[in-house]
Amino acid sequence: MIFDPQHRKSNRSARIGMALFRMSQAIKKVTQAESNALGFSPVQIQALLFTYYTRSDVATIGNFANSIGTTHVTAVKIVNGLVRQGLITKTQKPEDRRVTLLCLTEEGKETVSKLKHWGHSLEEALHPISDEALANFELGLGAIISAMEKRGHLVVSEPCLGCIHFCPNTGDADAPHYCKLIQKYLSHESSLQACPEHTSSFEI
Ligand code: SF4
């Protein structure tokens, strides 16, 4: 077990597992401090950023719940708090009325513009580390994230570039890119938004 120091001595996976656990504790602490300073909870900030960066037709409560690894009920409570503050609106998806789409109000967009530096403590903590060490770390971390995603522990939302379903520049000027998964043409702007269905074409 990863908390047993003797076990860690002879087991690299346990050492890395413990390191990740410690990192998650530190990340929780710094994001909480940054969020407090802005007057929101970390999950409220994540809801605002999710709504801003996710393609509008997939910015649903369900996808938000998956993105932060929580239940639908908890995600609804988080979103409702932001609806009451006038930052987010909820609408039913026209094609499926059981699905709730999230959208930022003008005030919500203004709030997001003030969140630009949220997470900066994490980025700053990495500044003293050499670029070479970070490049190796990025590769290893990518492999860990991919393994956790395959086990269903997390969802990685990314823009279209690098997705196996992406067929760029096959449409017209208004919607130049095609997605084989949803079988729709997308505007260039939509293809730059995060998509929870992104499936990386890079094998790690
Ligand atoms: S599944 Fe892939 S190609 Fe399709 S919209 Fe999502 S990211 Fe883009």
Give the topology.
Blueprint: H1 5-9, H2 12-38, H3 42-53, H4 61-68, H5 72-84, E1 88-93, E2 96-104, H6 106-113, H7 120-126, H8 131-150, E3 166-167, E4 177-179, E5 184-186, H9 188-191
Antiparallel strand pairs: 1-2, 3-4, 4-5
Helix pairs in contact: 3-5, 3-6, 4-5
Can you give a write-up of this model?
The structure is a single chain. α3 crosses α5 (72-84), α3 (42-53) crosses α6 (106-113) and α4 (61-68) packs across α5. The radius of gyration is 19 Å and the shape is globular. The chain has helices at 5-9, 12-38, 42-53, 61-68, 72-84, 106-113, 120-126, 131-150, 188-191, and strands at residues 88-93, 96-104, 166-167, 177-179, 184-186. It folds into 2 domains: 1-119, Orthogonal Bundle (Arc Repressor Mutant, subunit A); 129-203, no CATH class. The model has no long low-confidence stretch (mean pLDDT 95). A 3-stranded antiparallel beta sheet has the order 3-4-5. It has a two-stranded antiparallel ribbon with strand order 1-2. It is mainly alpha-helical and 204 residues long. It is 51% helix and 11% strand. The structure holds iron/sulfur cluster. Iron/sulfur cluster (SF4) binds at residues 160, 163, 165-166, 179, 181-182, 195, 197-198. Residues 160, 163, 165-166, 179, 181-182, 195, 197-198 line the site of iron/sulfur cluster (SF4). This is DNA-binding transcriptional regulator, MarR family. Residues 13-146 form the HTH marR-type domain.
